[in-house]
Amino acid sequence: MNMKSRLKNSTVAILMVAVVSLLIIPLPTALLDFMFILNLTISLVILFITMYIKETLEFAIFPSLLLVTTVYRLSLNISSTRSILTNAGYAGEVVKTFGEFVIRGEIVVGLIIFIILVLVQFIVITKGAERVAEVSARFTLDALPGKQMAIDADLSSGLITEEQARERRTKIQREADFFGAMDGATKFVKGDAIISIIVTLINLIGGVVVGFINGEGDFMTIIQTYSISTVGDGLMSQIPSLLISMATGLVVTRSSSEADLNSDVIRQFSNQPFVLIIAGVVLPFLTLIGFPAPQTIMISIMLLVLGIMLLRKAKPAGAEQEIGELPSAQEITSEVSYYKNLENVYNLLNVDAICVEVGYSLLPIVDESSGGNFLDRVVMLRKHFADEMGMVIPAIRLKDSSQLNPNQYEIKLKGESVAVGEVLLDHYLGLVPAEAPENDVDGIETVEPAFGMPAKWISDDKKIKAEIAGYTLIDPTSVMVTHLSEVIRRHASELLSRQEVKRMIENLKQSNESIVEDTVPAIVSLNELQRVLRNLLRENIPILDMETILETLADYAPNVKDHDMLTEYVRQALRRTITHKFSIAGQLKVVSLDSEIEDLIIKSIKKIEGGAYLALEPDIIQKIVTSTTDQINQMKKLVQEPIIITSPVVRIYFKKLLDQFYPDITVLSFNDIDTSVQIQSLGTITLM
Q1: pLDDT of amino acid 667
Q2: Cβ burial 318-353 (10 Å sphere, 16+ → b, else e)
């Protein structure tokens, strides 16, 4: 950094040192005049800035400026007091001019006006700004948790992106810091008003004493001289202080808006023309109690004319809005202008990773203001999925849709529908028990949307009866969340974007930087890592242990270029995770693959560049699928999720073959299973 840049970055520090030095170093009256005018100018600039900002954070340095300007005014006060007491009441032309202008030969009147000005600032403006700042700080801090929860809800529903959520969190934190700082900074303004009164008394009393000691004239001359200096000096301190106090009040009372204060005042007053007309009609009656007629009538006419003009201007706009059938030319023009910008057109191409559309009857479920807790449930779903699978669910957008039936909802992935369900708000979904109950419960026959089990929609008044009959009751929100969870689980591999993989790598880098730097992209590219992770998710294998995954890829990727084979090596490294996921009470109940079928599959593997495929005769495939179907149906009578076990070489090819017919069937190899688990075979798939 060169010397010029260093000086530029140190400007504020140099100015602060200069301001503090004014407390000690005497100033010539010419320089004192310059400092007084600069003080007044700075105060005016700050006041105008507060009038033109749209929200408080646009002027976030204001609390610090309050301290700087207060110290600056105090420094000038001390310098001017020193000059008044040592120069026979002369502290420059600015002080003299202000004092003579206010007093005008009437010492008592001038002092009274000055005291009123000080009290107005101290009691009305400063005290009010201090109180508003205190209340704003308290309410801003109290509202902070609620605002953060609202941001999390918007993020989980897909209304905002991660970056927008981060910006909004930063903004509300800055707002809390700002109002907290303003609460303390207003004490500077209050203290400034108090010290001004003290300095004024010192100037007047001390000046009179010094005047008598130095023999500067008779009593009236001394009083006249030091009164002018005292009032002039006090005004040059109080007027900038008053402007700063007004700016403080404007900042702490300013709410976020689309426009500045001037535009808001004009717009909001002009929106109420009837109020102006009523005021114009009432004013002339004040002349009956003695108000001067010319001035009162003039103001009344001005209000009436302004109100009528605004009313006439508002009527055409209202008429156009009432018609509402066709857009106005201005609207069409503005839309055309908007899409002239190519960036706005490209925004139309953005596709949501996950979107849930609901019919209008289901809005109370997703609307927090109506008591719905769907967003909170989605937040917990994201946490649970991250804990279980090691992947963060992307932002979920919620939309209402007029295309759906009132009780329907639709789940879309990347703009395309993948699942549709229907729930009844005032009912419970009752899963039909395995054994038919003696006293069945009346309800609307349906199918549970996530797993396809038979169910009934049971009204609230039959809830207790249904529970006694053995029905498992699920509320509508849980039905939707469960369905959404299963859809996400089934399509997790599609939702794992390259950007998300990069974020996962960055997260791992914080705890194990060496494995990341040694593997990605030195050995495995981000694209290759994404393909391996997608292969794992496609078969419902958690990718939480990224460290083990990268270490395995670092060992095998230099020699193995087939992504499917790399996935098999990773699966073997994750065998404890796989065993824990699919075993029950230390046992794994499976159906094994006959050695004859395994030999056929091995002989039918055809190697090609970058991979391999299975070339079996159609009739052989038909026999294998038929035998597999029989074994799966038999196994479902004993276990909920059938598992097929094969040799390591065959597993990947048999899984690809089976995916065409049973994509949800779990196929494991012996190398995927930890030695601590007991394998129990319930059957064998053979060629018929």
Answers
A1: 92
A2: eeeeeeeeeeeeeeeeeeeeeeeeeeeeeeeeeebb
CA 126 – CA 143 distance, rounded (Å): 25
Band (pLDDT 50/70/90 cuts) for residue 185 is low
* Maximum C-alpha span of the chain: 132
Burial 91-119 (b: 16+ CB within 10 A, else e): bbebbbebbeebbeeebeebbeebeebbe
Question: Amino acid letter at 15?
Answer: L
Q: How many residues does the chain have?
A: 688
Instruction: Note the pLDDT of residue 155.
Output: 62
pLDDT at 247: 79
- pLDDT at residue 541 in the model: 93
Residue 659 to residue 662: CA distance in whole angstroms: 5
3-state secondary structure 112-179: HHHHHHHHHHHHHHHHHHHHHHHHHHHHHHHHHHHHHHHHHHHHHHCCCCHHHHHHHHHHHHHHHHHH
How is residue 212 written in tokens? 């008598």
What percentage of the chain has pLDDT greater than the value 90? 17
Please name which of 388, 428, 404, 425 lies closest in space to residue 355, comparing C-alpha atoms: 404
Range with the poorest average pLDDT among 90-94, 318-322, 500-504? 318-322
CA distances from 277 to 281, 292, 300, 302, 408 (A): 6, 20, 9, 10, 52
Q: What is the pLDDT of residue 325?
A: 40
Distance CA 244, CA 242 (A): 5
Q: Which helix (H) or strand (E) holds 400?
A: strand 396-400
The pLDDT assigned to 90 comes to 76
Helices vs. strands in the chain: H and E counts, helices first: 28, 14
Report the interhelical angle of 162-214 vs 127-157 (nearest 10°).
170
Q: How many CB atoms lie within 10 A of CB 672?
A: 23
Q: What is the pLDDT of residues 602-625, one digit of tens each?
A: 888 887 766 677 788 888 888 888
Characterise 540 by phi-psi region: left (phi > 0), alpha (psi -120 to 50), beta (else). left
Q: Which amino acid is at 500?
A: E
What single DSSP character describes residue 5?
H
Determine contact, residues 177/156, Cβ cutoff 8 Å.
no
CB-CB contact of 391 with 543 (8 Å): yes
Q: What is the pLDDT of residues 352-402, one digit of tens each?
A: 889 999 988 888 888 877 777 888 888 888 888 998 999 999 888 888 888
pLDDT higher than threshold 70 for residue 133: no
**pLDDT value, residue 354:** 92
In the block, which residue shows the tokens 């929609």? 457
Residues 6+ apart with CB under 8 A from 410: 356, 357, 358, 401, 404, 417, 419, 420, 421
pLDDT tens across 280-323, in order? 888 788 788 777 888 888 888 888 888 788 777 764 444 333 33
Element (H, E) at 444: strand 444-447
Q: How buried is 481 (Cβ within 10 angstroms: 0-12 exposed, 13-18 middle, 19+ buried)? A: buried
Q: How far apart are CA 223 and CA 204, in angstroms?
A: 8
Q: Which of 454, 451, 467, 458 is nearest to 640 (CA)?
A: 451
Cis peptide before 521 (omega within 30 of 0): yes
